[in-house]
Automatic annotation (TrEMBL):
It comes from the Eukaryota. One of its GO terms (cellular component) is heterotrimeric G-protein complex. Residues 140-248 are annotated as: Disordered. This is G-alpha-domain-containing protein. Mg(2+) binds at T388. Residues 235-247 have a biased composition (Polar residues). PANTHER family: GTP-BINDING PROTEIN ALPHA SUBUNIT, GUANINE NUCLEOTIDE-BINDING PROTEIN SUBUNIT ALPHA HOMOLOG. Keywords: GTP-binding, Magnesium, Metal-binding, Nucleotide-binding, Transducer. Coiled coil: none annotated. The lineage of its organism: Eukaryota, Fungi, Dikarya, Basidiomycota, Agaricomycotina. Gene3D superfamilies: P-loop containing nucleotide triphosphate hydrolases. Pfam families: G-alpha.
Length: 569
């Protein structure tokens, strides 16, 4: 259309005065036009025609893309933060578009290094908390005449964090238990909070009730156990004495590993322009949807960085960043020694910290990852943690299976509460929702540590089931992280302690899964605007093999429903 206008103008310019077209008259060259002016005018007309062609082609392309998208199958991945949405997406890519998945391998190397550094950082924090708390440990009357130690009279920020119980391998993990408070028809009423793992008895715990009001509560006690006022200040005091099994060797290791700490921020800066790199609630690096982090990370991973500097791929010019790969490799043995040390493990256990439950946990693989020529395996990529912000669109062309060559769009969303309003615009244009709900009955939300994770998942599920915009959408529920549920139950953690209505049913995986599955099924049945089938799968999406088998079934089911809805079958 645009090109027709310009060609008409160019033609008119060439044959000015040859007809009565008013446009041609307006565009006609002046009668006394020189040869040079004519040449310049014709050149401009040709350029205008070229631009016009380009615009026409763009419009055609957009129309085709719009048509393609309209016909394509669209899936929305929903669920709370850390439920496994992005991991499910990676499984889709690995199963149905493996070439594309593997083309991003280099980008994930940097993220996995970041994940490893983050775990080391957390490990060092726990050791610091341990050393801090030994300085404030109270002792009883044997020392009652001793003056208070100046080191014990105030609390360090680390010790304060430790007391608050808000930090652990998985930040929500060490919260004192809170029972799930679901709507009346869901689970039972909340029960009073009680102590759990992190309140492991300390050798001096029994003395705490008498500790002085001038001294902070000992960090090994949950906040609820800490006395508000001292009843007998004269019977106890705090002095500096060693209660920790950690030794000078541990201090030396910690000292050497501190070199890793600045790398996290430096890598994040190198990966992304400031507007795209964001720090998550747990202080982790995350990126906004649509940012070019994969390109930047690939460049960073393959740039063969010099020891002391790197040209940043984000176009911000030169900045000096220690080569993370070399620094990590230099620290490899120290990280392995510290992580495998039985005393360190005992301290972690006593403090109720399970680093292995942290998203993006790679400490067990340090010897393999902290090397100069590390290349991530498929499993590493699937297990890597990068928080999603906003909504990411991923387009697939199916390489095999039903309807090969068909186009699929998968939308991966950020699951934390502040991200949820961004989901709604996608509701009226998707055929299926895969809803991920880990049965983390003993964990709290990171963004609101008062809210139990299963409670949050169930109330989200209720909203999805009852939403009118989604009345015709296929809902597929993944009860995810079954491997973690299995380990939690095997560790003797009882569901009834957090979900009183669970009662005295057996605390095994079959009964627990059935209990929660029935809750989800009940809401699906009761709240769906029209009757629709309830699809549910028990998944551990970090297990790529079993997930691939599940996804083949899911894909065929969605395809069939889609074809039925457009009356093809
Ligand atoms: N053990 C285990 N870990 C899992 C499972 N599913 C996901 N994870 C891990 O949990 C972490 C969080 O998974 P993600 O897929 O990033 O979670 P998400 O739902 O995309 O989270 P947001 O982007 O914050 O909304 C990652 O480190 C995953 O490797 C699972 O079934 N078992
Ligand atoms: Mg995600």
């Amino acid at each position: 259309m645009a090109s027709k206008l310009f060609s008409a103008a160019a033609e008119a310019a060439g044959v000015a005065g040859a007809n009565d077209d008013p446009l041609a008259r307006v565009l006609a060259p002046p009668a006394d036009e020189t040869a040079e002016a004519r040449a310049a005018r014709l050149e401009r007309a040709v350029e205008a025609q070229r631009v016009s062609h380009e615009i026409d082609e763009d419009i055609q392309e957009s129309k085709k893309a719009f048509e393609r998208r309209k016909k394509a199958i669209k899936i929305l991945l929903l669920g709370q933060a850390e439920s496994g949405k992005s991991t499910t997406l990676k499984n889709f890519q690995l199963a149905f578009s493996p070439q594309h998945f593997r083309s991003e391998r280099a980008a994930w190397r940097t993220i996995i290094q970041l994940n490893l550094i983050r775990s080391v950082k957390r490990l060092l924090e726990v050791l610091d908390e341990e050393w801090d708390s030994e300085l404030t440990a109270p002792v009883k009357s044997a020392l009652k005449s001793a003056p208070s130690s100046p080191t014990a009279s105030s609390s360090s920020p680390r010790a304060a964090r430790s007391r608050s119980g808000s930090r652990s391998g998985s930040p929500s993990r060490t919260r004192p238990p809170q029972s799930i408070a679901l709507p009346p028809s869901a689970l039972a009423n909340p029960a009073a909070g009680s102590s759990r793992a992190h309140a492991i008895a300390h050798p001096h715990a029994s003395t705490s009730a008498a500790s002085s009001s001038h001294h902070p509560a000992p960090s090994f006690l949950p906040p609820s156990s800490a006395p508000r006022h001292a009843s007998h200040p004269s019977t106890s005091t705090s002095v500096r004495f060693s209660t920790t099994p950690l030794t000078d060797t541990h201090r030396r290791l910690r000292g050497r590993l501190r070199v890793l700490l600045p790398l996290e921020a430096a890598l994040a800066r190198a990966l992304l322009p400031p507007d795209d790199a964001v720090t998550g609630p747990a202080g982790d690096v995350c990126v906004r949807a649509g940012s070019a982090w994969k390109g930047a990370a690939s460049v960073l991973a393959s740039s063969g960085l010099a020891v002391n500097g790197v040209n940043l791929p984000n176009g911000k010019g030169k900045e000096h960043v220690d080569d993370p790969t070399r620094t990590l490799a230099a620290c490899k043995d120290d990280v392995v020694t510290l992580w495998e040390d039985p005393v360190v493990r005992a301290v972690l256990k006593r403090r109720g910290v399970r680093l292995q439950d942290m998203p993006g946990f790679f400490l067990n693989d340090t010897a393999r990852i902290a090397t100069l020529n590390y290349q991530p395996t498929d499993d590493d990529i699937v297990r890597a943690r990068l928080r999603t912000l906003g909504v990411e669109e991923h387009r697939f062309t199916m390489e095999s299976g039903g309807l090969p060559g068909s186009e699929w769009y998968i939308y991966d969303v950020g699951g934390s509460r502040s991200n949820r309003p961004h989901w709604i615009p996608f509701f009226d244009d998707v055929q299926a929702i895969i809803f991920l709900a880990p049965l983390a009955f003993n964990l709290m939300l990171e963004e609101d540590p008062r809210v139990n994770r299963v409670e949050d998942s169930i109330s989200l599920w209720r909203e999805i089931c009852g939403n009118g915009l989604l009345a015709k959408t296929t809902l597929i529920l993944f009860l995810n992280k079954m491997d973690i549920l299995q380990a939690t139950l095997a560790a003797g953690i009882r569901v009834a302690k957090y979900v009183p209505s669970y009662g005295d049913q057996p605390n095994d995986i079959q009964h627990v899964t059935k209990y929660f599955r029935d809750k989800f099924r009940g809401y699906h049945k009761r709240l769906s605007p029209h009757t629709r089938p309830f699809y549910v799968h028990e998944t551990s999406v970090v297990d790529t093999r079993s997930t691939a088998a599940i996804l083949v079934g899911v894909r065929e089911g969605i395809l069939r429903a889609h074809l039925q809805s457009v009356n093809v079958i």
